[in-house]
Amino acid sequence: MSHTSQFKPLAPETVECPYPFYRAMREEQPVYEVPGAGFFIVSRYEDILYALSHEDIFSSMVPPGMQGEPDDEAIEIMKSGYLPVNTLLTNDPPSHTRYRSLVNKAFSARRVAQLEPSVRLIANELIDGFVHSGRCELVSQFAVGLPLTVIADALGVPRADMPRFKKWSDDSVAPLGGMITHQRQLDCARSIVEFQHYFAERLEERRSAPRDDILTDLINARLDKTEPLNTAEMLSILQQLLVAGNETTTNLIASAMMLLCQNPDQLDEVTEDRSLIGNLVEETLRVESPVQGLFRVAKRHTELGGVKIPAHARVLLMYASGNRDEGHFADAQRFDVRRANSRTHLAFGQGVHFCLGAALARLEGKVGFETLFARIRNIRLAKDGNDLTHTPSFILRGLKELHLEFDPA
Ligand code: HEM
Fold first, then answer.
1. What confidence tens digit (pLDDT) does each residue in 262-303 have?
2. Are 215 and 202 spatial neighbours (Cβ–Cβ below 8 Å)?
3. Which of 119, 297, 348 to mutate to test the pocket of ligand 1 (most atoms within 8 A of CB)?
4. pTM for the full model?
5. Mutational pocket test of ligand 1: of 173, 248, 396, the residue with most ligand atoms within 8 Å of the beta carbon
């Protein structure tokens, strides 16, 4: 077996397949101080859960430098837009609680369930685009378009603006892995400013002409029932809906299909018994977690998994490792659509920051696969074009491409 110290956490080969590294950490040093990197990686299920449920000790207000935050030149560019404010992902209670309660309603299970017919319609429209050719590249022809169109519709963005929308979404997440060039970071900063100006204008439009969409909800929202949100706060929330919701759901759909193609017996089971699709989504989130991990910072001196953590130290909660922890999931490395406790995964986090869009992502995954299985059959990996490599990031995990062949149903 390989040892924790033999791995370079940011080396391309580790990022492409981090699972042996996670396993070594869990077995040898479950709270591992990465030499020279200035942070700890937390790899066991129970320790991650402990940190997530103690937001009084482990803050989400992570100081700059770890999650691909902009450098000085990028900040100069961002000054021509709206400087970031902490609302959801990078905030702590009690301020986080106030913002979160404003957006909870828009993403409640009940509101999301009402979207089902439109999610199905969008899935069918995307499949119309490739069904007759007997082959497709699933990421670009289906998995990107489904969540992007759903959120664009919910925000009230015209379909014609979708290509710009996709670019803003990509450019908002690209810095997250911390693995992009300086030039790319500047491009991303320019793109985010463009996004802000676009949505600041749309918000102004809603102020004078309200509609039934999330932008109008934000205009009407009142913090503590009195204070309206300012534009910078609304933009921060909107950017997180884009960042957190698109690429993650795209990656979930592509990974699920890859895992099924690699396990044809399970593909047969799921296509024959569609009631397994819900658990297919959960099991994929477990074994190929789209968000591999996120940082917290210790507010004070503490201990985690028996390891002393000094005040202000950063800890990377490796959700993807907890999701393969043998102490919680039997035969944890195995993909199993019938696994009974798949849904206890940590892929949506846990506690006060539990994914706002979890119900929506689950719906998109379920309806996406129901629609695919209704329209195409005999699905298999295409003979050429597949190297099954992932976008380089140690935070977000997703296939670059997935080429399939199939028969129209
Ligand atoms: C498969 C798809 C998705 C995955 C794997 C995912 C994963 C996550 C994770 C792990 C967190 C917790 C962050 C933390 O621990 O600090 C989170 C939070 C969040 N997610 Fe998702 N997400 C997905 C889809 C979505 C969608 C569709 C939306 C919205 C449209 C969304 C919006 C958010 C927001 C706004 C937060 C911040 C919540 C807060 O800090 O209170 N996510 N997500």
1. 999 999 999 999 999 999 999 999 999 999 999 999 999 999
2. yes
3. 348
4. 0.95
5. 248
Phi-psi region of 178 (alpha: psi -120 to 50; beta: other; left: phi over 0): left
Q: Strands 31-34, 222-223: parallel, antiparallel or unpaired by DSSP?
A: unpaired
Residue 64's pLDDT is 60
Residue nearest to atom 11 of ligand 1 (CA): 355
Q: What is the pLDDT of residues 9-49, one digit of tens each?
A: 888 999 999 999 999 999 999 999 998 888 999 999 999 99
61: left (phi over 0), alpha (psi -120 to 50) or beta: beta
State phi, psi for 223 to the nearest 5 degrees: -70, 135
Q: Residues 6 or more apart from 105 whose CB is under 8 A from it?
A: 111, 217
Task: State residue 67's pLDDT score.
Answer: 53
Tell me the best of 60, 173, 284, 356 to mutate to test the pocket of ligand 1, counting ligand atoms within 8 Å of each CB and taking the most.
356
pLDDT for position 156: 85
Tens digit of each residue's pLDDT (9 = 90 or more) over 99-118: 999 999 888 888 899 999 99
- The alpha carbon of 208 and the centre of ligand 1 are apart by a number of angstroms equal to 31
- Characterize 6-17 residue by residue with b for buried, 16 or more Cβ atoms within 10 angstroms of its Cβ, and e for exposed: ebebeeeebbee
C-alpha angle 226/229/230, rounded to 5°? Answer: 130
Residue 144's alpha-carbon distances to 151, 355, 398, in angstroms, are 12, 19, 11
CA gap 85, 111 in Å, rounded = 27
- Cβ count within 10 A of residue 261: 20
